[in-house]
Amino acid sequence: MLTIHAADLLLPGPGRRPVVGGAVLVRDGILAAVGPYDELTAQHPAARVRRWPGLLTPGLVQPHGSHLLERAYHPDPREADEFGTEPLTGTALNGVEMSDTRWGASARRGVQRMLAHGTVAIGGPLTRPAVTDAVQRSGIRLLGHAPAAEPGPPASLDPLARRRTVAEAFAAPALDTANRPADFAVFDAPDDAILLGVGASCCVVTVLGGRMVHRRR
Known about the structure:
CATH topology of the largest domain: Urease, subunit C, domain 1
Strand content: 25-35%
Helix content: 10-25%
Order of helices and strands: EEEEEHEEEHEHEHEHEEHEE
Shape: elongated
Structural class: alpha/beta
Strand order of the largest sheet: 3-2-7-13-14-15
Largest sheet: 6 strands, mixed
CATH superfamily of the largest domain: Urease, subunit C, domain 1
Number of domains: 2
Oligomer: single chain
Number of helices: 6
Number of strands: 15
């Protein structure tokens, strides 16, 4: 199956020029080609086409994945009246009875929130079996050790938080065809400068290994 994903602007990665009306070609979960939409459709007329508004970039990495999944509780929407909707950390967790089952359910919700921010990889290591299982089942990629804790408020779900450039958050150096998995995201922003200011919550779609794992309704 061949699929072309096209956007208003393609940001291939550092050192590569943005492509207006750019696109990527996905074959069996692998990036097969990157370039202008018109060229890719002319070369592959039988490919399925998905067009998205905004900016297409490499998928993002959330370096604080282990912190956000193993030291934070992501409330069930049905618990909003009791716990609110934002992750609970630190002393706010004292009133929550955290069983293995609850950690696993929290991790599943946390991963979904990360995918909704264009995240395709997270920093580890993970130590709770229920959380590890949730991450493995989701398909999100687990990287090495998490960075040292930073001073200030708890880590943000937004992988662009505290970044100087969007490229600093890329999980892979660039969108290329060196047998790389098709991991990328599209954001409702016209360019990287505005995306950095708005944040990754404007994610339209996240693709992981060629599969759409998040699509904004």
